[in-house]
Write a structure and sequence with these properties.
Layout: H1 10-21, H2 24-37, H3 45-56, H4 60-96
């Protein structure tokens, strides 16, 4: 005899809301739609989902943080390159001074 439920199971409904709020449902839907839209279906659908699920997990906050880090590192690199250039120029001046420290008369 089949068992029919009168309404949704409260625990199930709570879990569904939890998954929706956490973005899991949207991420899975996005990956599955991407798989569906593939002209040539991959041989291993599970591997496709695993690979693409990682990409979906990147939030805009992650991207913004990484972009800011790139900007900071580029500025630091430019500052260090300038400092390096100045130090090389100083070194060249010191290397061109006679060893006795005086000037030729």
């Amino acid at each position: 005899m089949a068992h029919y439920k009168q309404g949704p199971d409260p625990k199930r409904e709570q879990f569904r809301r939890y998954l929706e709020k956490a973005g899991v449902v949207d991420s899975l839907t996005s990956v599955l739609v991407s798989l569906y839209e593939q002209q040539e279906k991959p041989n291993n659908a599970l591997e496709f989902v695993k690979q693409h699920l990682g990409a979906v997990g990147q939030t805009s906050e992650d991207a913004e943080a990484l972009q800011q880090e790139v900007i900071d590192l580029r500025q630091r690199c430019a500052r260090l390159a300038g400092e390096n250039k100045e130090l090389k120029a100083k070194l060249q001046r010191y290397e061109s001074v006679p060893e006795d420290g005086g000037t030729a008369n």
